[in-house]
Amino acid sequence: MRDSPPLRSRRLRLVTPRRRRALQLIADAGGVREGVSQDILHTRGCGAMVLNALIKAGMVRVSDIRIRAGRRRSRVAHLRITAKGLMALVAARDREAQKSKRT
Is CATH 1.10.10.10 correct for 16-98? Predict the structure, then answer.
């Protein structure tokens, strides 16, 4: 039977550089209040697998909003960062700062 890795190492693996970049884009686009559409994140290079991982980890929340363009109405997936995502982003920044101080 395999032992599961300690909880701390699992947490550290959740925020990869790609996920950190996606969290940063969402936070910069308005974060908790405003958020950003999924299409904008895709055009900025954030893939569906990265966004799904953030959603499953509870770092990002998805909601469908209805928009109107002329006479057409459509739904858009809108992403907002959660408190857990903000904490992970701050922790990742702190780790980067510690690494830069060492070198």
Answer: yes
